[in-house]
Amino acid sequence: MPRLYELITGPLLWLSFGIFFVGLTFRVVRYFQGLDWQLDRVAYRAHPGLGLKGALRSIVHWLVPFWSEGWRAKPLYTLIFFIFHVGLVLTPLFLLGHAVMFKERWGVNLPTLSMGLADVLTIAVMITAVCIASRRLGLPEVRIVTTCYDFLLLLLSVAPFVTGFLAVHQATHYQLWLYSHILSGELLLIAIPSTKLFHVVGFFLSRGQIGADFGIKRGYKGKGFAW
Questions:
Q1: What are the residue boundaries of the structural domains of the chain, listed by start?
Q2: What CATH number labels 2-219?
Q3: Backbone angles phi, psi at 112, to 5 degrees
Q4: What SS3 string covers 35-66?
Q5: Is the pTM here over 0.70, yes or no?
């Protein structure tokens, strides 16, 4: 078992991070290469200041609950959505166990959450994941665009939280849950660049592009607009 632990927290972890970062970099570069100011009818290069201002405004408005009209239209779902994603991001980044592993492996010191807060966030992720799945099944307008693929990605996103919670709090089968936790986390890292989970980065790209579009088209007051 120690050899398996060394394998999944050593070479496999490095491989997972490598695929994650290289894959994200590739997708981001491809996204920017796909921008066409003539096709999109947005003068990106001619008005970078207006574009940047509009992009930042759009991103910030959608990062704050209930700031944008889209969030205010469905307040309950907005609350569930934000709780789910806050827990999904904060818990793995600042979990004490992860910080210890990073310290042991690479000498990196990370800030940590208290165990109590980590448990609260983990439970919140699991509960809100059930709510999101129920919404996909219960609302006809959402169910019609939902496939098994969407549920698989939701399950993949939550699996590290369920297995990690059981590893910490389950008295029996600790190693089973621990290894399942590590492997499911690595699988999640590998899946992010090549699946819909890319929206963890794609959100900022798409919201930034939309914001830049509005910022440039509505903010420019001069003559001779560059098309």
A1: 2-219
A2: 1.20.950
A3: -130, 155
A4: CCHHHHCCCCCCCHHHHHHHHHHHHHHHHCCC
A5: yes
